[in-house]
Every structure is written in structure tokens, then in C-alpha cells.
Amino acid sequence: AGTVQIQPYLNGTAQAVIATSASNSGSYSWTIPASYTAGSGYTMSVSAMSGQVWDFSDSSFTISAAAVPTVTVSSPNGGETWGVGASNKRVAWTTSNGTFSSFDVQLSRDGGGSWGNLVTGLGGSAAYYDWPTVTGPGSANAMVKVIGYYAGGSVNDRSDAVFSIGAIQVTSPNGGETWQAGSTQNITWTSTAVAGTVQIQPYLNGTAQAVITTSASNSGSYSWTIPSSYTAGSGYTMSVSAMSGQVWDFSDSSFTISAAAQLPDLTVGSVSGQSAMGKGAYNAVTVRIDRTGGALTNGTYVLVRVYLSSDATITSSDNQCSTDSDATAQFSNTVLNTSGTLTATVTCVPPASMANGTYYVGAIVDPTNYHAESNENNNSRAGATTNLQ
Predict the structure, then answer these.
(1) What is the enclosing helix (H) or strand (E) of 272?
(2) Helix, strand, coil: what percent of the chain each, to 5?
(3) DSSP assignments along 366-388, one per residue
(4) What is the pLDDT of residue 253?
(5) If you count Cβ atoms within 10 Å of the first and of the last residue's Cβ in the chain, which end, N or C, has fewer?
(6) pLDDT value at position 176?
(7) Beta bridge partners of 102
(8) Sign of the CA dihedral 10, 13, 16, 20?
(9) Are 199 and 241 in contact (CB under 8 A)?
(10) Handedness of CA 157, 162, 164, 165 (dihedral sign)
């Protein structure tokens, strides 16, 4: 009559009573604590009426260890590359054999030697964490670890192998520089855990410009000759990216590309000589040289040669009658840069071998193309004719 007491024994030693007053219904549901001692020598006692009536299991039974919940990292699990600055890179995991109360996610940049929290206290039903923005420094030995907490303790798992957190840092231009179109500049950067080549591309006020190169060596430096026609602006930034855009960086702030230096243009404004000249004699020829556009920057003078020609088209194959030493002494860069025009007298000594007759007196400025000009095809002019005797 009355209730029953239920108590297990392990190898003959009484264990904690399961129930002191269970209904004598013939059945009792027992949830075995997960921390219960495992063993194969258990028997079960059911007694009643203050121990006057009892029975034990006819032979022993086994209580095995509780199934421990598991957590398994599925991503990143080795070999991936995440770029510094990338958004919402997912750490994912699976669980089995139980329920969890919470999760922490940790990151190592040294192959598991040390760990730091990415996030703590995720809910027990979580199966992933999206890292909002991947931060540096870069590493070729990164791993993640997921720690799961349950009623009996905690378990963890880490990436099976290392993955990379790739980093590129643009060092020049990195903000504040002024580069002139037409000049040659070095684009420089540093990188960590970046394989293959890099792509280099400028942006102007946030708008992508033509790619400079799609496959530069990841050497940390690239020499760029800026086209003279490049659009001037103060809102440029430079992008260096790699690994199909998984890793990239921009200049920290904007830099300026200024307009190309304007080239000068030299022309012969006028040529005038004597109406008659004697062969082998010293004859004065007045030549006016004009400069427009940019300043002359090469050397200190402009060479002018005087010719006698049978037609009004003056070329270097005509009869030169001036000496270079005489002409160069007359036409100074400084004067031409200051005033834009210079008139001087050049001595013309017609060769004795020339035939008598009528010739055009002409001049060519910069006949050797010593000075780079915006127009190299307008450097000659013919003046009036002279009678050579």
C-alpha cells in the first residue's frame, strides 16, 4: 500500500534517491542528469512500506556518459581570403547532440597562438555571424573559433586550416600630393597575404577612371606616366586591388592632378635682308622671332639659321648663309620668355660657289628641334628677295 521509493546502486553502493514517494503505478519516468556517473554496475531498487517490501534488478545495467553537444566550424575553414574592409563576411557553424545557451566567436591572426573576441553572447539558436567589416592587420595565418555554451559546460571548434586576411595599403598618392599631367610618378603600396598581380585604377570625385593597369607586379611600386591630356582635378584617389577585388585599398584622402605644362611655340615673325648681296661678303639680315604658349626651359638660347632659297619655301636643304655661333648669340631664352618677341640682326655670308641670281631670304627657328614645341611645323618663313652678285 502507499507510495514507493526508487534508488539506484552502483557496484552495490547506494546512490542518491531518485524518488521517495513515487506513485505505486508500476512506472516512473526518470531523466538521468547529464552529469551522472557512467558505469556498468548499476542496479535499481524499488521499496515500499518503510522498506518492508523491496526488490532489486536481477542483474546489473549500464548508464553511459551523456552525449556532449558539439559545434563544428564550417566557414572559414581554410584557404579562403577575406580582404580588409570587406563587409559581412560570414563565420558559420553547425551543432549536434544537444542545445546551446549561447555562442562566442573568436579570431586568431597567428594560427591559433592567441585569440580575440569578434562577438560574444550570440543566442543559442545562432548558426552564423556576419562580421560587419573585416579589420586589419592582414594575416596569412588567420583562424576562427566558435565556443558553444550549454548546461553542462562548453565546447568549441576552430577552422581546420588557416585562411588569409589580405591587406593592401596605398602609400602614395595618399592625399595632398599634386602630380602634373605629363609627368612620371611612382604609385606605391604595401601588402600582406596578397597573391598574384594587382590592378591600379584612379577615381575622380568617386567616379572610376580608366584602369592604369590590370596586372602590375605586386612589387609595391608602379611607375605611371600621366598622359598630358589627363583631366585636371583635385578630387583624385588611387585604388590598388588584388585577387579579383577581394583585397583593396584607396588613398586615405584626395590628391591633385594638375594640367600638363604648356609647351612653347616658336615662329619666325619676319625676315628682311638687303636688296642686293655680294657672295662672300657680310650682309645684315634682320630676323624677328616670336614665342607663344609656355616658357622655354631647355638651355639658354634659341638657334636661328638664315638661308637663301630659289623659292619661297625655306628648308634646311637650302643654302645656309649664317653661322650658328653668330645666330645663337642674338636670341636669348630669357628675353623671349619675358617679352614673347625678339628682333636681332644676323650676318649672312653667301657662299662663293652660289650662282648669281635672285633668291628669297628666309630663316628657320630651332632647326634642330632642341626645344619641344606645341607645333614643330611652323618654324620657317621667307622674306623678300635679294639679288645675289
Answers:
(1) strand 264-272
(2) 5, 50, 45
(3) STT--S--S-SS--EEEEEEEEE
(4) 98
(5) N
(6) 98
(7) 123, 149
(8) positive
(9) yes
(10) positive
CA count, 13 A, side-chain hemisphere, 137: 8
Q: Which residue has the cell 604609385?
A: 187
With CA atoms as reference, report the closest residue to 158 among 118, 125, 100, 124.
118
**DSSP H or E segment with residue 189:** strand 184-192
- Contact yes or no for 293/263 (Cβ under 8 A): yes
Cβ atoms of 162 and 110 closer than 8 Å: no
Identify the residue whose cell numbers are 580575440.
116
Whole-structure pTM value = 0.59
The amino acid that residue 318 corresponds to is D
HSE-up of residue 36 (Cα within 13 Å, Cβ side): 22
Burial 307-342 (b: 16+ CB within 10 A, else e): bbbeeeebeeebbbbbeeebbbebbbbebbeeeeeb
Mean pLDDT by 10 residues, the chain (389 residues): 94 97 96 91 95 95 91 97 93 95 98 98 98 93 97 94 95 98 96 93 98 97 96 98 91 97 95 96 97 94 97 97 85 95 96 96 97 95 97
From 85, 237, 249, 83, select the one nearest 169 (Cα to Cα): 249
Strand partners, 156: 147
C-alpha cell of 206?
568617386
Q: Which pLDDT value is given to residue 198?
A: 97
Residue closest to 235 by CA, chosen among 284, 184, 177: 177
Set of cell numbers at residue 265: 611655340
**Residues written for the chain:** 389
Task: Name the residue among 151, 25, 156 with its Cα closest to residue 99.
Answer: 151
Q: How far apart are CA 41 and CA 39, in angstroms?
A: 6
